[in-house]
Amino acid sequence: MQTNWLSNRAYSNVGFWKSLFGAAVVAGLRDRYRVRLERTDDPNITRMYLVHQGLLEDVIEDDSGENINRVWRWRANDPELEAEVLLRFLAFRGMDEKQAEQVTKPKPRVERAVLQDVNNGQIVVVNDNFARTWRRVGVAIDRLGLIVTDRNRAEGLYYLKLSDDFVEQHKAEDSGLMTKWFGGDEDKKSTTTFVMKLERRGETTTVSLHDQSGQLDNSATAQKLNKLLYQQLH
To answer: CA-to-CA distance for 21 and 18, rounded, in angstroms?
Structure first.
């Protein structure tokens, strides 16, 4: 499930902010949330994952101050907003507020993954067991805005497709890479698909991207996704 965009125009006094920071200023924020429910082996327990996605509005004025161009661009996921919304949901569902605060309190950040080069591509090695890595990868996929077309937990597989939002977000960052991905054809921007595979390796779990033939994918797209996935998991 995904909410609509909620606008926040706390920074709408363009003239004041322009006098402080110059021609380009932040005029507004937009937030939305993606909620995913997942079955467990216990029929009485359902896991709920909630992630934040945000936009930031730049207002650009020319020297005369008469012409204004408003541009929305993506901003980073905000874990504090995720925790706040989750806390409110738990309180709404009847959990004691102090208990909800403990449940949603951010945990200390530790390095838990490395991006590793192998003979025919890259993999992400996560220093955690399969079950927790599976859940964390699911959250990372939601945060990145990728589309899960199917999944098979028993085999450790996620079937992924790039969403239009993902393409639009990274198009602004690297238009050259986007041309390599899609050949400049806007009608094909959501057709690239991947198979993400999680494998147990002792006390660690490896995460790798494969093409439809089952081969490790070392394309420019896969390299970009591996880097983004590592940033979410480390």
So the answer is: 5
Total structural domains within the chain: 1
Sign of the Cα pseudo-torsion (164, 165, 167, 168, in order): positive
User: For every residue of 65-83, which 3-state class applies, written as one string?
Assistant: CCCEEEEEEEECCCHHHHH
In the chain, the N- to C-terminal Cα span, in Å, equals 26
For 232, residues 6+ apart whose C-beta sits below 8 A from its C-beta are 136, 139, 140, 143, 144
Q: Does residue 150 belong to any structural domain of this protein?
A: yes
CA separation for the pair 198, 160 (Å, rounded)? 13
Which residues constitute the domain of residue 186?
Answer: 110-234
Q: pLDDT tens digits for 27-81?
A: 578 899 999 998 888 999 999 999 999 988 877 766 665 666 778 888 888 888 9
The CATH number covering residue 145 comes to 3.30.310.170
Is there a domain that residue 97 lies in? no
Which residue blocks in 9-114 are alpha helix, DSSP H? 14-21, 79-92, 97-104
Amino acid at 79: P
SS3 category, 40 = coil
Alpha carbon distance 225, 119 (integer Å): 18
Rounded to whole angstroms, how far apart are CA atoms 89 and 24?
A: 36
Does residue 215 lie in a domain region?
yes
What DSSP designation does 24 have? E
